[in-house]
Amino acid sequence: MVKFDKCFDRESVNAIKRSVDLALLEIEKLAGRKIAFPQNISCMSESEVSRGRRIRGLGHEEGAGHGMLSCDGKCIVKVNRDMSAYNILANVVHENIHFAFPEKGEVETDSLTEFVLEKLKKRRNRSVES
After folding, report:
1. β-bridge pairing 3-4 and 40-43
2. Residue 36 neighbours by CB under 8 Å, 6+ apart
3. How far, in Å, CA of 53 to CA of 49, rounded?
4. How far apart are CA 14 and CA 36, in angstroms?
5. Would you say 94 and 113 are in contact if contact means Cβ atoms under 8 Å apart?
6. CA dihedral 6, 10, 12, 15 (to 10 degrees)
7. Helix, strand, coil share of the chain (percent; to 5)
8. What is the rounded CA–CA span in Å between residue 95 and residue 24?
9. Measuring CA to CA, how many Å separate 1 from each of 17, 22, 42, 48, 59?
10. Mean of pLDDT values over 86-100
């Protein structure tokens, strides 16, 4: 189970925590293997967000600065905390797909992120209907 740093809004974390765990299971299904995902979700610093916003191209036509995967020995997922709970979820999923599939580019990672989020939505709708 992943842990969110205290810098995140508790209400947002509570709203998405179960979905994050389910998303990681979906990513493992896609990969066809168990994955030791990074366990802590940290907040990006203001300078990391600012630097990310200046990135253009390579799948970031509108700029980045939403999330990042930092692998300097130990991998850490960092996300911009100033987003909606859904966007935090989407970016945690996105960065963990980068972790699981380092060979995939930004466009492929975006597609896989949408696929996983759609699976979560369908799962949620099925449980509501039950």
Report:
1. parallel
2. none
3. 6
4. 22
5. yes
6. 120
7. 55, 15, 30
8. 11
9. 9, 10, 14, 25, 29
10. 96
Helix (H, G, I), strand (E, B) or coil at 24: helix
Asked if 98 contacts 58 with a C-beta cutoff of 8 angstroms, the reply is: no
Query: Which residues are 70's β-sheet partners?
Result: 76
> CA 31, CA 60: separation in Å to the nearest integer?
24
Q: Can you give the pLDDT at residue 63?
A: 47
Q: How far apart are CA 82 and CA 43, in angstroms?
A: 9
How far is 64 from 50, CA to CA, in rounded Å? 9
pLDDT tens per residue across span 9-56: 999 999 999 999 999 999 999 999 999 999 999 999 887 877 755 665
Residues 6 or more apart from 76 whose CB is under 8 A from it? Answer: 38, 40, 42, 69, 70
